[in-house]
Amino acid sequence: MVCAERLSLTPQIQLYLTGDHTPTHVQGGRFDYVALINMPTYTAEIYLVTSLLSDHFAQETTLPVQSVPAVPRKRLTMPPSRMTDLVVHVVAWYAAVKGSLADAEALYDGLLHTIEGFIATPRVPARAHAPRRWTYATDPVILNCQQTLAANQRRWQLNPADTESRDAMVTVVRHLTDLRQQERKKYWVSFLDKVRRTRSLWEAWHHVNSVRGKSRRQVCDPDSASRAR
Predict the structure, then answer these.
(1) CA distance 179 to 103
(2) CA–CA separation, 224 vs 23, rounded Å?
């Protein structure tokens, strides 16, 4: 094959016209060429096909195809039940950042990060902890002792040869035990005083249940039917 002409349309686009000056019509006088963009003629094989049910021949062009190596892609899995929530999450993300995306790559990176973050989030959000009931551990003096005990315990665990931290830990434990016993005594004295001042068994059950909490089986009047009569 003969390269008829090479045209430089732009610095990035090179056009090659190829042909062998053989007429492509049965009556002659007509020439066809093959245009290749950014592909030198030596990379293509061009033949004239005359065995057609037509008065016009054809240029058959064979281009080499190089197999592209497979690019490993990250595969993400998610239960179908979460798909609706994912769509809502992605739409909300895009509405917040669509004005700040510089190009398609930024969109892709942000979208992938948003989807991966959603999948990594636990399906059921953590329940809010129920308000803690009254306990002697809320006393500021006891809390301070507990923090001191924890600090000395960490130092001793990191360095078992630290006898100073171990001795301080033992001293704080003894003092903390005394404080807890005092707080327990004060609490139960107050509780028994409330029970003594009750005027009915119903109030007594109420005080008992307030101590036991809702998570345990409630205490009720064992003989409420006879008292109702």
Answers:
(1) 64
(2) 115
Please write the tens of the pLDDT for every residue from 28-74. 777 777 777 777 656 677 777 777 777 877 777 777 777 777 777 77
**pLDDT per residue as tens digits for the range 102-139:** 888 888 888 888 898 888 877 655 565 555 555 555 67
Contact by Cβ (8 Å): 31, 21: yes
The candidate with the shortest Cα–Cα distance to 82, out of 127, 116, 119, is 119
Integer Cα distance of 188 and 211 in angstroms: 10
* Rounded-to-integer distance, Cα 15 and Cα 128, Å: 68
Chain centroid offset of residue 134 CA: 37
Contact (Cβ atoms closer than 8 angstroms) between residue 72 and residue 57: no
In this structure, how many other beta carbons lie within 10 angstroms of the beta carbon of residue 160? 9
Q: How far apart are CA 215 and CA 130, in angstroms?
A: 11
Domain borders along the chain are 2-62, 80-120, 136-222
Q: List b or e across 204-227, with b for residues whose CB sees 16 or more CB atoms inside 10 angstroms.
A: bbeeeeeeeeeeeeeeeeeeeeee
Taking the C-alpha atoms of residue 108 and residue 201, their distance in angstroms, rounded to an integer, is 69
Model-level pTM?
Answer: 0.31
Instruction: Tell me the sheet residues that pair with 46.
Output: 61
